[in-house]
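Supplementary Methods S3. Input chains for the assembly prediction are listed below.
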Amino acid sequence: MHPGVTPLVEARDVHVHFGTARAVDGVSISVMPGEVVALVGESGSGKTTLIRALQGLQPVTSGEIRIRGAEPEWKGRAGRRTFHDPGIQMVFQDPTGALNPRHTIYEIVAEGLRIQGRRDDEEELVATAMARAGLRPPERFFSLYPHQISGGQRQRVVIAGALVMEPSLLLADEPVASLDASIRGEILALFRSLVDESGLAVLVVTHDLGLAWNIADRIAVMYLGRIVEVGAVEEVLAEPQHPYTRALLSVVPGRDEKPQLLKGEIPDLRNVPSGCRFHPRCPLLQSGLLPEEVAARCVGEDPGRIGLEEIRAAACWAVAR
Amino acid sequence: MTVRSMTRSGAPGVSAAGSFWRQFRRSRQGMIGLAILVAFGILALVAPLIVDPAQFSPVVARTLGNPQWAPPSEFPPLGTDHLRRSVWAQFVWGSRVSLTVGLAATAVTMVIGTAVGVIAGYRGGRLDSFLMRITEWFLVIPFLPLAIALASVLGRSTRNIILVIGLTSWPWMARLIRSQVLTVKQRLFVDRARSLGAKSGHIIRNHILPNVSGLILANATLWVPISILSETTLSFLGLGNPGNPSWGKTLEEAFANGAMTRNAWWYFVPAGLGILTVVLAFTMVGRTLEEIADPKLGKER
Amino acid sequence: MSEPVLVLEDLRVTYRTSGGAVPAVRGVSLEIPAGGSLGLAGESGCGKSTIAGAVLRLLPGTAEVSGRVLLAGKDVYELKPGGLRAVRWTAGAIVFQGALHALNPVQRIGDQIAEPMLVHQTVSTPKAAKTRVAELLESVGIPARRAAAYPHQLSGGQRQRVLIAMALACDPQLLIADEPTTALDVMVQAQVLELLADLRRQRDLALLFITHDLSLLTTYCDRLAIMYAGRIVEEGPSGDVFAGPSHPYTRGLAAAFPRIGDRSSRMAPSGLGGDPPDPAALPAGCPFHPRCPLARPECREAEPALRISGPERRAACILV
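Predicted structure tokens for the full assembly:
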């Protein structure tokens, strides 16, 4: 899709199954250098499992993962293979929980370096990473403990702990969901400026479409283990094609349109509906406006997976592809 | 550079220990217990300066010309026993033996219990099941028969008493620590370390152990009195080292030689009170440590 | 207009702690008319949840309360215990955040909903209570047969609905919702909030909605009050306040919720700098001045009072 550029990370038809639960059920996604991709979905959509797989912590059942165009260095036996790539770092939802209360901020930020056995220029690297994460002057925070700083600063410490490894990709799982609304903007602005200034890429998992609008270049919408719609943020959010994306967008507070409430909750991953997995809740199908042959396909035929090559797509029989 | 030396030299560690001490100092029960322990600790340390262990031989006691069954008024400070030995000397020496056995047996308990608990809790899976089955197997065997059997196989010595107590009491500790490790393992900072590429050793050393150490310390302190009482029990049953009089041993000999019927209270009361006081003091310190390690406990009490 | 269902007059709440007195609410006056709705927004630590507790006298013993709270015309702080119990549930009921902790895990949900009705004798027999529980469950969108379920057998959204059913058990005039949807997914959140809106219309229920999410309040409340450091700094009709904030704090808070499709917020997330103030050590003068982009020297001197900033609007800022 970006000819000549190697994606930082590329997942092709990745499956992660837990027994009969298909948490990730054939997902393809890529992140290019210098872009922010938002992976949007509700809890139970498999988005957290997917990014754990991209990070190498979650063994995949099948499918292919490539890091900067190459196979990662797999460890462990078949079926339980994991990998670690210092170029991919993680930012967590709950910064308070992600920081060991018994370690100082300095020790927390330096932890990655110490694990990698890099000790020579540790202090300089730690200070630089903290300054990049907006903790200035860094020295002021070195000997403090997590409980002595605010929630927003804790999230900056988590980010600094990732930046110290000089990653090319940050995976962020709901990075502002547990923060006060007023702090949210600052942390998001930090992500955007890291991307714009140093060519870092970010894959951010969120349920918040406003966050995608705020900082993301591309968006992928996930439902029940599959990506159901992808595209540039402006296009997807201005003209959503998949009925699920439309419904999600309609319930964003403060919008003028009437909220399109879906019935019930996201089904259990162990009981993925046949046909289109969204059909039991699909307002379009329920409206009865679909031509009969399309409606029949919705119930009986899987609309398939969205491939890596597709720039703008929706996995929906009612949408012409 | 100044910053590095500050962060590396353990300044934060000092401040953590400092805050721990500040909290401890606020507890009256903890401070009283600690004062008692310090006093007995000093007594046990200086025991060889006060008492020559040679006098525990009945032959030496006789050559010293001590009276038999003398009450404290006749042979200050604490009278003599049926073999003309000074009860005071036995009491002083006994504090040394009882504290040594209590601490050493607890150390054995802690090392085995922590190792098993951490490995089982952290690794989980089949290894966990395996270790827990062994632990349960040890748990369901009644303490006394096992301890008596072990002691008679290993022979009568202070070292063996320590081993017997350690080998029979680690399962409790293992289960306690395992459950705590299971909780800490779920914490997000363990996930973060893993995502930074940390191996199990790093995670256990830097994240698991520091977060269960408070519990380990508190329980160790609570375990010392139990070990001392176990030692007393085993010595009372005649499984102690005859040449190394502990408080338990003193009680056993007093009982066996009719101190009760002779009304020779000075023979058994000092040792009994010694055990009671030390056990109580360890419990007071242990409870205080437990409350600091787990603040929720303090509120519920 | 009829008598307001809730009136706060100069409400002050101070927590006694080992570190000294911490003022959480510092003089809040507000009014909710019967059937009306007010959204109370602010950051964590601004005192908004303390107000929820103060209205029903649910604060811990370390809280010192002064000022007046009139719930359905009765001064909550002058009531005897019996009268207080009657006012809780029947005049005002609260829906807590975190539905998992507010429900008893070992009691069937039907019994938990029936409990306040039997305590307050709004129904006479257990049989009547059962019928009423079935009605209530249906009204919050849960099949009546689920009354026999235990909390863990329900999803997060359903548990929140159960809490709403509980709050409605004694037909209160006012519902206090303290972050009722924080832990829920967007779609479930929308379902729960639409349910609340429907129930309000059917029952002419007044609502005090407390959250940090300003954008929710604009959709679901008539009026909005923004709290900062224990005081209301702006209030007015919700649409007007959100669209054209008078106070710089409201402006920062509103900007944190981008309007999807609005070009100005695309690739430009905004919010406030700095951190919420520590209630135990508030800055002198206007407590917002250290974070205020428009602060002037005189802002350090005196704390501004609320003044008229437009039709039915007030704001506490010297620039108004």
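The interface with chain B takes residues 55, 57, 84, 86, 89-90, 92, 94, 97-100, 102-104, 106-107, 111-112, 115-116, 123, 139, 142-143, 145, 158, 161, 165 of chain A (CB under 8 Å). Chain A has a mean pLDDT of 91.
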